[in-house]
Amino acid sequence: MLEMVIAILLGWNEVFARERTAKRAIRQALSSACVLGRRTIARSILVREQEGEGAGEEKAKDWSADYRLHSRSPWEAQDLFDPILKRAIARSEGELLALATDDTQFKKSGKKIATARFGRDPMSPPFHVNLRLGIRFLHTSVLLPLHDTDGVSARAIPVWFEEVPSVKKPGTKASDEERAAYRKAKKERNLSTEAVEMFKAVRKKVDEAGGADKTLAFGLDGSFTNRTTFRAALERTHLIGRVRKDAKLCFRSAEKRRVYATTSFTPESVLKDGEVAWQEARIFHGGAWRQVQYKQLDHVLWRGGAGKRELRLLVVKPTPYRLTKKGRMLWREPAFLLCTKTEGEATPWLQVYFDRLHIEVAHRELKDTFGVAEAQVRNPLAVPRQPALSVATYSALHLASLEAFGARRNEALGPLPRWQREKTRASCQELIRYLRHEVVTHPEVLAPFGLSITEKSLLAAATT
Q1: Which of 153, 263, 296, 369 could disulfide-link to 428, CB 3.0 to 4.6 Å?
Q2: Strands 215-220 and 96-107: what pairing?
Q3: The pLDDT value given to residue 56
Q4: Using one digit for the tens of pLDDT, what is the confidence trace for 328-356?
Q5: Residue in 450, 455, 382 with CA at minimum distance from that of residue 34
Q6: Are residues 330 and 368 in the same domain?
Q7: Are 214 and 330 in a shared domain?
Q8: How far apart are the first and last CA of the chain?
Q9: 249 and 138 in one domain?
Q10: Do 179 and 250 belong together in one domain?
Q11: 103: helix, coil or strand?
């Protein structure tokens, strides 16, 4: 797997101006992935400094080159995902290229980070909203349809990770001009407008990566289902997102001088309407193929959102489940979806939305296991670049595991504990543990990059 990770990361030679800078980035990516404990730049250096390859006091004095990689070298953070996007497109069969978009916040404590803002803590209880300091990123992943080829759940491979800070609010002593500029900036530089620009940029990158014949299908959360995104003119790109149950919808008016019909309805009313027939779709969800019932209305208008653009309304029936075999029957909430694609079958688009869940799995692994944004940097260029490099390494690790072991968990990763039930997917922690094993047992693979990691250096860096 290590050789495949390096083969993917070698695509960074086209991102950096010099080959030695690309090698430095690869060294930092591999050493940061193997670090025990918090994944800071200092620990990634210590992993290499104390491995006994002749690194003396003179080499240990200057660590600035690894920091200047993010603060001074001329390179674009999103270009790191170009080799990853090419391989993800090659593994996505069919006309649709399924993607998921969401925003996420990473906790920070540095008061000197210019783009750090106070936001809602997602771990706060529902009855008391807490605030925390952090940096916000816009994240897009390709949803590999592994259920079509290997019978397992889809895998989210990040291909875009961009910092999207909120506009700083002026103080109480600000002038009227500053307040007016703040209100204007909030309309021009918010999360939705940045998402639209990202849709267009990803479309361009997919074309350059050889996916010009594919239609992009973005699965969105409710916060991105609004007039900014659904009124945007996007080429060969369609959106499907969750909408409120009380959104006011209507059909196009039969009168020539009117656009909207006089009668309106809501998605919740369609759920309760007995005249709209239920349909069935075969969807892969929760590790198995399941029959999902839904209602469909085509050529729907959303006056407050998409305006005159016709949409498709999909109402997914709530599914029953039991916590135990003999427990009482429980019901999930229904899903109300709006899709900009009004022609063709609805099943592929329902599958895209069901697969969108896996971007949340990627968020959890990036934060809890891979330690993204734990590096202590505050330079305006380094703050968005260093997390992007870590996320690109995460994507390369997962793609390499798919090529080395396949979509299902391989026995090479070791036996499962007795208390853990059988699982089909290898966890991020298992992949990192196997990567550590390979960098220690196969130093010849890392020799061309001037990198050597030993068990002693890993433990020494973890205790520093």
Answers
A1: 369
A2: parallel
A3: 39
A4: 877 778 999 999 999 999 999 999 999 99
A5: 455
A6: no
A7: no
A8: 29
A9: no
A10: no
A11: strand
Q: What is the C-alpha to C-alpha distance for residues 413 and 426, in angstroms, rounded to an integer?
A: 8
Domain ranges, residue 331: 243-338
Domains held by the chain: number: 2
- The overall average pLDDT reported for the chain is 90
CA dihedral sign of residues 122, 123, 129, 130: negative
Question: How far is it, in rounded angstroms, from Cα 175 to Cα 239?
Answer: 40
Q: How buried is residue 8: exposed, middle or buried, by Cβ count under 10 Å (0-12/13-18/19+)?
A: buried
Domain-ending residue, one of 311, 338, 365: 338
Task: Provide the pLDDT confidence category of residue 49 given band limits of 50, 70 and 90.
Answer: low
Do residues 120 and 146 touch, judged by C-beta distance below 8 A? no
List, for residues 63-95, the tens digit of each pLDDT value. 888 999 999 989 999 999 999 999 999 999 889
Distance CA 133, CA 109 (A): 7
Q: How confident is the model at residue 195 (pLDDT cuts 50, 70, 90)?
A: very high
Do both 365 and 449 map to the same domain?
Answer: yes
Distance CA 298, CA 109 (A): 49
Same structural domain, 279 and 216: no
Distance CA 398, CA 154 (A): 12
Closest CA to 205 of 86, 93, 102: 86
- pTM to 2 decimals? 0.91
Return the structure tokens found at 146.
């592994």
| Whole-Å CA distances, 367 to 6, 12, 104, 130, 378 | 23, 24, 10, 19, 19
230 within a domain of the structure (yes/no): no
Helix (H, G, I), strand (E, B) or coil at 282: strand
Question: Which residue in 200, 216, 205 sits closest to 94, CA to CA?
Answer: 216
Q: Residue 285, SS3?
A: strand
Whether residue 66 contacts residue 45, with contact meaning beta carbons closer than 8 Å, is answered with yes
Residue 197 and residue 109 share a domain: yes
* C-alpha dihedral sign at 390, 436, 3, 398: negative
Whether 347 maps to a domain, the answer reads no
Mean pLDDT of the region 216-224: 94
Helix (H) or strand (E) holding 312: strand 310-316
Residue 316's SS3 state is strand
Closest CA to 192 of 228, 243, 234, 141: 228
Q: Is the same domain home to 19 and 121? A: yes
Of 338, 373, 401, which one is at a domain's C-terminal end? 338
Q: 32 lies in a domain?
A: yes
125, exposed or middle or buried, with CB in 10 Å at 0-12, 13-18, 19+?
A: exposed
Distance CA 67, CA 163 (A): 19
Q: What is the pLDDT of residue 48?
A: 83
